Amino acid sequence: MEELTIKIEPVPKARARVVNGHAFTPERTRVYEQAVAIAWRAKHKTLHQGRLKVSLTFAMKIPKSMKKDDVLKAVNGEIVPLKRPDIDNLIKAVLDALNGVAWVDDKQITKICAEKIYGIEPYVHIEIEGC
C-alpha cells in the first residue's frame, strides 16, 4: 500500500467550460490537480498496474461560524460536513490528478472508499493498494 497526506484544501472537480467551441478545465481545478500530482510524484515513483482499491479522506476546514461546542464535536467526527462540495466531485478531482501518475488509467480502480470530515487543518489523504 502507498499513501500520502497533502495539506491542501480539497477542491471538487468543476465542470469543463466551453468557450468558442473549445472545452477547458477551470483554473482552480487545474491548479489543484497539478498540486496533487506533484505531491504524489515527490513521494512515490511507482505506476501501479492491475486492479486497485483507492481510499480517500477529505478534511474540510471547520467553518468560522461553527459554535465552540460544535467545533470539538466536528474534530471528533460527531459532526460531518453535509454541504457542498459533493464527495463525488472531490473524488473525481483526485482520480483525474493521479491518472497516469499513480496508475496507468483510472479504469483499473475497482474499489473506492471515501469520506468527508472536518479537520483543524484541511487535507487530502490518499491510500492506494492492489486488490
What would your notes on this structure say?
The chain is built from three helices and six strands; from the N terminus they run E-E-E-H-E-H-H-E-E. The chain is of the alpha+beta class and 131 residues long. It has one domain: Holliday junction resolvase RusA (60s Ribosomal Protein L30, Chain: A, 2-Layer Sandwich), CATH 3.30.1330.70. The strands form two sheets. The protein has a four-stranded mixed beta sheet with strand order 1-6-4-5, covered by helices on one side. Strands 2-3 form a two-stranded antiparallel sheet. Strand 2 and strand 3 (22-24) form a beta hairpin. Helix 1 packs across helix 3. The longest helix has 17 residues, at 27-43. The radius of gyration is 16 Å and the shape is globular.
Tag the structure with descriptive keywords.
131 residues, alpha+beta, 60s Ribosomal Protein L30, Chain: A, 28% helix, globular
